[in-house]
Design brief:
Helices cover 82% and strands 0% of the residues. The protein is mainly α. It has one domain. The radius of gyration is 27 Å and the shape is rod-shaped. It starts with a helix and ends in a 5-residue tail after the last helix.
Length: 115
């Protein structure tokens, strides 16, 4: 299949979008995980405890924070697909509709006036 200039540009834009947004959404998920982890860990550590249990409580708080902050892979993957992959075919469809409309209008303009 031969691609004209606009389609080549569209393929490059789609690939750039896919790679860039996949990385961006992944970074957002990582920031959310770290923020949730820090919040839960600090809240757990601020509870009163005996000084002798400090190390044990720290390990317990890490486990609780890790469990709370972990995002299921299915949820993460569904967000990636919804925000990264789904827009690509929608943009292609929109581009083809716009091109078809522009050509349709140009054909109407190019018709000689009826006499």
């Amino acid at each position: 299949m031969k691609l004209n200039g606009w389609r080549r540009l569209g393929v490059l834009a789609s690939a750039s979008w896919l790679i860039g947004m996949w990385i961006h959404i992944g970074n957002l998920q990582e920031q959310k995980y770290r923020g949730d982890y820090r919040y839960v860990y600090r809240a757990c550590r601020e509870r009163s405890h005996a000084l002798a249990r400090d190390f044990v409580q720290s390990k317990e708080c890490r486990a609780v924070a890790r469990e709370y902050a972990e995002l299921p892979v299915a949820s993460w993957l569904s967000q990636q697909i919804a925000f990264v992959v789904l827009p690509i075919p929608l943009w292609w469809l929109l581009a083809h509709v716009c091109i078809w409309l522009a050509r349709w209008v140009m054909r109407g303009v190019a018709l000689p006036p009826a006499t």
